[in-house]
Amino acid sequence: MVREQLAARDIVEDRVLAAMGAVPRHAFVPESQRAAAYDDRPLPIGYDVTISQPYIVALMTQLAAIEPGARVLDVGTGSGYQAAVLAELGAQVFGIELIAPLAEQAAARLAALGYTQVTVRAGDGWQGWPEHAPYDAIIVAAAAARVPEALREQLAVGGRLVIPVGVRDSQVLLSIERTATGFRERVVAPVAFVPLVQPS
Q: Is 52 among the catalytic positions?
């Protein structure tokens, strides 16, 4: 997977490639999906949500420029795969997942795999997790109609927010860096994510 799907494309950071190779993706998908665990495509994990394809996880991780000891917010934790990749890079990870059973399963799975520097809770990703802010990076695994203001506010100066923005048929991946005077934003690529749902 690492050699053919990631390094052969534009994933060039050795640390990111090593982290992707270290995380057992098959442990983060349902048993019925394990034969396809290392295919470069999203897979269903229940509750009408998916685990992102490996290339997109690697790309978002590379854009976030994670350094050891970084404090990272993982929005839309799902099965916990992205959080595990971040932990492999030495980050302290705070994962937030709207669907409570998924949050509970992710927390148990990550703990069983030894990712003790990851904390997961159920909650509204639009609001982030202000108690642990500011974050050196925020990665969002669901598409928002607009960039949530709370996530901008919780980003440290010099930190990066990587988020898909748009509606289902028209989404782009944004990389947003907070500077001393504001935010610098760039469009990275067209993408397709499940929506970032706001609780009613």
A: yes
